[in-house]
């Protein structure tokens, strides 16, 4: 069945490519868009490198806190001098425990129940919140999927229970996450690999939307970047929406709270740096859930297929590496001067403002089809056309005013400012917490390139008109 699906998809692609060969005007849009069909050697090498190194990188950043008080250089110096060996470091790391497995099983099951069995009611009483059943963006094959948006509700219930436990019930210690951190790493890896492998096999045996599957012919690339676009179980269990949002992002704020509780337990106080990290990251997380319907229109859902990159990334990379600042502060409790704390807060809030306003402007512009006000004026835009995989001709608009007229990805710039603020909250004692800003810079610059490649394939000459009108990506006048 899978090869028939793949062949049909390839035939359709060839048919469409030949139809679109000469088409690069507004009337006749560009060729096939969406994830690559052919893999170049550079992408393949990057994929294999990531598959081989990413799990060790996560282990390294967590292990150095456990064994070296978050010094990144100390283990390398010890390995070089022979004082430590890979084996001795490995032997000192806590191993898998059944307690951690139970905690993680309860956690993931609880999130599945909240996702699948508790339809959203918050949109009925929260003004301006778009929850409940929402449409996703048009897929390359021309489908529009429906999603049950109830992430904010799940976040609220989970955190209310966490609070009730900490204040009244005392079923478990609020430090539970920190206390089981490395054993939990093994459990998250098991789920991350299981989900990615299941999605890979499912794409061959029973894909949800065969028309939106992409087989590149390279098994590593397929495993990592995914084959199915929107794998689902049943009508509603959407892998992308669930794994990114629920075990990953709902956990983010709980993990930070657990770190704060650990600081309190160890030192008898919580530092202002820890409070800053908790507050700034909580704003980002809450923003994500408040705008979960908007997330349906982002690259994760509109472009990426579901493979190891998203499956393992959401289960392991996100909860462990996005929370490095809090982990660092447990081992190195930094109390910032008032001026330093104020500067971090300002940077974080300005970054958040740029990030949210930019995203909001695009969302408003697209939702109203340009019939809105941006910075007090009617927005300017470029009309464009594109074709979906079913051959349908569609029209779209690229805004050239507001933040989208200043640079093509100012939402990424704002995100980077916020990320730098989290790191700067940890002071300048170690480079460990700064890994996050390095990673986010690589991720978002690479995302610029990927997104622009996709848009150029989708819109052809219309995209070129947009890049002529708005020539810079992240920093006007520089990049
Ligand atoms: P965007 O939200 O910027 O979406 C890009 C898409 O928007 C393009 O593919 C195009 O899609 C459309 N578009 C581009 N230019 C215009 C324009 N001028 N007018 C109207 N529409 C336009 O990108 P992402 O999905 O990557 O990011 C969403 C947010 O998530 C960002 O703020 C980013 O910082 C954040 N993010 C955070 C991550 C994290 O790990 N913390 C990871 C990734 C993202 P179309 O086909 O519809 O035209």
Total DSSP E strands: 6
The largest sheet, given as strand count, sense and whether it forms a barrel, is: 2 strands, antiparallel
Report the span from N to C terminus.
Answer: 47 Å
Percentage beta strand: 5-15%
As an assembly, this protein is single chain
Mean pLDDT: 89
Helix content: 55-70%
Globally, the shape reads globular
Topology order in helix (H) and strand (E) letters: HHHHHHEEHHHHEEHHHHHHHEEHHHH
Number of H- or I-type helical stretches? 21
Return Rg in Å.
Answer: 23 Å
Low-pLDDT regions: 1-31
Q: List each distinct ligand once.
A: NADPH dihydro-nicotinamide-adenine-dinucleotide phosphate
Largest sheet strand order:
1-2
Question: Can you characterise this structure?
Answer:
It is globular and about 60 Å long. By secondary structure, it is mainly α. The chain has helices spanning 2-20, 41-68, 73-81, 86-92, 98-117, 122-125, 151-169, 176-179, 181-205, 219-225, 239-267, 272-290, 292-295, 299-302, 308-321, 324-331, 338-367, 403-406, 410-424, 435-459, 461-469, and strands at 132-138, 144-149, 232-233, 237-238, 381-387, 393-399. NADPH dihydro-nicotinamide-adenine-dinucleotide phosphate binds next to helix 17, strand 6, helix 19 and helix 20.
Question: What can be said about this structure in brief?
Answer:
The chain is mostly helical and 479 residues long. It has helices spanning 2-20, 41-68, 73-81, 86-92, 98-117, 122-125, 151-169, 176-179, 181-205, 219-225, 239-267, 272-290, 292-295, 299-302, 308-321, 324-331, 338-367, 403-406, 410-424, 435-459, 461-469; strands spanning 132-138, 144-149, 232-233, 237-238, 381-387, 393-399.
